[in-house]
Amino acid sequence: MNFTDKVVFHETKSDMSVNLHIQYKLAADKRVVRRLQRRWLSFEVRNHPPASPSSFWIALLMPADKSNDIIANMELLYQEKWLPKYGVRRANWIWKTQALQVIVRRWAWPITFIVGAIKALKIG
Questions:
Q1: What is the DSSP string of 5-25?
Q2: pTM across the whole model
Q3: Residue 88: closest CA among 36, 41, 56
Q4: Helix (H) or strand (E) holding 104
Q5: Parts of the chain with a pLDDT under 50
Q6: Tell me: the pLDDT tens digits for 81-97?
Q7: What number of other Cβ atoms are within 10 A of residue 78's Cβ?
Q8: Under a CB-based contact definition with an 8 Å cutoff, are residues 87 and 109 in contact?
Q9: CA nearest 20: which of 32, 8, 9?
Q10: What's the gap between Cα 105 and its chain centre?
């Protein structure tokens, strides 16, 4: 990005923010205000994407050799696909459900095996 691209980008960003603020002040309808807020938030997300949600539980409950790959793949999907397509709120929900699915798939078989063994001990 050269100097002229930076100037054009800055002018475009400042023009858009001024226009949105003017439209926000003039809007009397609540639906219009919400639509403008969503446009403003999506503009901010495109230029300053938020950090990915916490990956603590994935790192804690998954094997170390797999957790780093899973976290890296999910962060890539979060930044490049989910945020632009769905926005921050829905992208965070997708992140949480995907993390839960990975953890449940990993621990479903060992937990059912342990529960079955405990039942066999009680019966036997």
A1: HHHHHHHHHHHHHHHHHHHHH
A2: 0.56
A3: 41
A4: helix 83-123
A5: 1-10
A6: 999 899 889 999 999 99
A7: 20
A8: no
A9: 32
A10: 21
